[in-house]
Amino acid sequence: MGFDAGFVSSAPGQAVHAPSVVELSDGRLRAVWFSGTREGAGDVVIKTSVMDPSSLRWGAESTLFDRQRIQRGLWRYVKKLGNPVIARAPDGSLLLWLVTVSVGGWAGSSITWARSTDEGEHWGDPRRLVTSPFLNISTLVKGAPFFYANGQVGLPVYHELASKFAEILRIDGNGQILDKTRIPGSHASLQPVVLPINAEQAQVYLRSAVGTAVMASSTRDAGKTWDPVRATGWPNPDSALAGVVTGTAGQWLALNPDHAGRQILALLHGPTGGSFEGARPWVVEPSAAPRSRVPIRDFEALLAAELDARGAGAAQVRGDVASAVRQLCGADTCAPEFSYPYLLQGRDGHLHLVYTWHRARIKHVRLDPVQAALTDAAPTPR
Amino acid sequence: MPLPPLVDFLALLGIDLALSAGCLRLLAGTERAPKEKNWTKWATALFFIGMWLPVGPAHLPLLAYVRGISSDLSITLVALACLDLCARCVVLPAIAGREKTALRIALALAALFVYPTALGWGDWDSYRSGWASWGLWTALLAVSFVAWFMGLSLLPSLVALALLAWSAGLMESNNLWDYLVDPWLAAAALFGCLKSGARRLWTRQRFRPRTFLQSPH
User: Fold this and answer.
1) Which of A102, A134, A176 sits opposite B119 (nearest CB)?
2) pLDDT beyond 60 at B159
3) Is the dihedral of CA B104, B110, B116, B122 positive or negative?
4) Distance between CA atoms of B27 and B48, rounded to whole angstroms?
């Protein structure tokens, strides 16, 4: 059993993070992520690239939104951008949500959104979602949206100021918020990932801000009420999750399945509507020593080897290794990182996973979920 | 600089009016501007216009930078700023102290109801009621009627104005709470309530009849 893997982003030396992906009407994939000199810097922009499914090659990256455009569209000062989430609305248009900060750190975030009616080539003016009465700050987005039977959008969001908790926004076709539901007991949980089972039932999995376990809740009344959050058997090192429910191959969860560090990235498979307890992790990014830091020289060699193997030029390798070292290394050692996964199932049935590769590149993995669900063998990259 | 969409224009205008009211109050003092302080009105007018000057790489008006920090102001705050400006610039009767006290108490109670739960105190979120909830409409109607029967007109008028603006969708938010109250107004109302409460307590203590203990002869 194997999977296809390749890099999405291409600009060398950038700090990149938080990718998401959508399938275009012609079957190509469009990924979005944020990129700049460092996370939270004023030069961070929202980048995009498109993949041809026949060659599995990602095209040149381009800028969707920069800070100036967001500021002009919102008619207010914006200090930094992050966490773009792209999805197809029931009316066929593409929707993009991202977080913008005017004052302070990420806890000062608000959600901004825009719509494209030409498959992401051009985007309308960004607009702001008002989700909080307190200066409209501290609502962030990371997880994939889902859609209600009546065409309304469900957007999983989370709050960070004063206390952390998870919420689901219900948004109409014009981008207006209709309601917001807090997931009970989600204090110290964030970045909800919703797995819809049917029109009435869904599960939600959450990142633990205190780094204990993957948290979970469920609804049986189309999200009007949610059960109190409970801990699952899977550890969570305060890192983001991703999930998807496939048509024929059950449901999948992408996570860092360890108590500390983001050095292993794995997929879990379970029956639709069932649990992931006891699932065998399908490791996408393995680590020989998952909880120990790596000496800088070894880290540089590790990254250079993979970049070389995937055909990166010398300048690209130098730039990407320097970017990763700048962000993940201390004086002598580094913490390798595979993080912020995002999952999507294409119309051909393939599962697409995009994630942050050592904060220097965005990586894409494609696999056949039916075969993956049937095999017990450890996966190998092609 | 292109013209902003209506919602953004009104938000910027609201911030400008509130800042200008603050500016005039600062320059002219707490008393109404007398004739010899006419310059304060002109200075405020210049300030009002100057805040629309585009600055920075995005060529945004100065007000847009303030908006990044202040967020959008409630209709109530903007209306109060307009009343204050009008009372100082043209001859308008000042708002009666009784009206101010009632409004301050109502706003402080609203703030205590909305902000703690919206910021995560418990699993119930009072802010939800601002999205087309009969409960909030009924409560507002009841408060307005009670105020009306008590001979107060400011509170019901501001509630009516906020409801009109909300039904016309004049703000970026579609949550009624954002039309009624904002953190700046809430902070001012809470401070005002605490101040007047402390003053009453102090006055009561000061004028309480003193009893002297006398030692038996």
Assistant:
1) A134
2) yes
3) positive
4) 14
Q: Give the Cα separation of B126 and B130 in Å (integer).
A: 8
CA distance A180 to A161: 17
The kind and range of the H/E element at A157 are: strand A153-159
Of the partner residues A71, A178, A184, the one whose CB lies closest to the CB of residue B123: A184
Q: Encode pLDDT of B66-100 as tens digits.
A: 999 999 999 999 999 999 998 888 767 778 889 99
Question: What CA–CA distance (Å, rounded) separates A3 from A20?
Answer: 19
How far is residue A374's CA from residue A377's CA, in Å, rounded to a whole number? 9
Cα(A358)–Cα(A327) distance, integer angstroms = 8
Cα separation, A98 vs A84, whole angstroms: 4
Write out pLDDT tens, residues B25-54: 999 876 555 555 788 999 999 999 999 999
A-chain residues within 8 Å CB-CB of B175? Answer: 130, 133, 177
Most A CBs within 10 A among B172, B185, B190, hence the mutation to make, goes to: B172
List residues of A whose CB lies inside 8 A of any B CB. 67-68, 71-72, 74-79, 102-103, 125, 127-128, 130, 132-137, 159, 161-165, 167, 176-182, 184-185, 187
Cα–Cα dist A220/A201, whole Å: 4
**Residue A264 CB partners (closer than 8 Å, separation 6+):** A256, A257, A258, A283, A285, A286, A287, A290, A338
Of A76, A130, A179, the CB nearest to B68: A76
Torsion angle, alpha carbons of A182, B123, A99, A94, to 10: 0
Contact flag B174-A137 (C-beta cutoff 8 Å): no
Spell out which residues of chain A touch residue B124, defining contact as CB-CB under 8 Å.
182
Q: What is the pLDDT confidence band of residue B62, given thresholds at 50, 70 and 90?
A: very high
How many angstroms separate the CA atoms of B133 and B176, rounded?
9
Q: Diameter of chain B by CA atoms?
A: 90
User: Do the interacting molecules here have an ipTM over 0.90?
Assistant: yes
- Contact partners, residue B134, CB within 8 Å, separation at least 6: none
Average pLDDT taken over every residue of chain B: 91
* Per-residue confidence (pLDDT) for residue B211, from 0 to 100: 61
Residues from B in contact with A at Cβ < 8 Å: 4-5, 8, 11-12, 57-60, 64-65, 67-72, 114-115, 118-121, 123-125, 127-128, 130-132, 172-175, 177-178, 181-183
User: Which residues of chain A are modeled with pLDDT < 70?
Assistant: 1, 374, 376-382
Please, are residues A166 and A183 in contact by the beta-carbon 8 Å criterion?
Answer: yes
